[in-house]
Amino acid sequence: MPTFHSHFTVQAPLDKVLAFHRDARNLPKVQPPFPKVLSLICPPELSVGSLVEVELGPFPRQSWKVRVDELHEPHGEPRRALMIDTMISGPFPFWRHRHEFTAHVDATLIKDTIDFEPPGGRFGWLLLPGVTIVLTLMFCYRRKQTRNHLNI
After folding, report:
1. Which SS3 state, helix, strand or coil, does residue 20 take?
2. Rounded to whole angstroms, what are the CA distances from 1 to 17, 83, 125, 128?
3. Average pLDDT in the 93-109 region?
4. Of 125, 109, 129, which Cα lies nearest the Cα of 117?
5. What are the structural domains of the chain?
6. In angstroms, rounded to a whole number, what is the distance separating the alpha carbons of residues 120 and 93?
7. The whole model's pTM is what?
8. What contacts 71, CB < 8 A, 6 or more positions away?
């Protein structure tokens, strides 16, 4: 199963970074303009079992429904937090997104790990290079936007 990794640091405390990520209404703030967030249904604060429904588009139009499966509040030394969400319907046969947050003095390290199966059945593996490029570009944009919203 392919795995995508991204990591970066923001100049903000762990609690602020985690709160930003637990508010799925922030997704349009960090999502690239293509594909754009067309609609979003979510609770004000994500917790275990929360569902997030998002429609992206305009082309190709994609409907995603994800569930928060794990959420670990800040703990330990260094302080760490974790949130894992799994796609329950959408364009991929399998998609699990692990968000890890680690406090570092006056900054927070954000690590994203996505395990996925490419769409397209047996021929989906041919799409893997394209999926990897799209994810890389999307997370570069998200890194910049997250820093814009959170850096002190």
Report:
1. helix
2. 29, 20, 10, 11
3. 96
4. 125
5. 3-150 (3.30.530.20)
6. 9
7. 0.95
8. 22, 46, 47, 48, 82, 83, 84
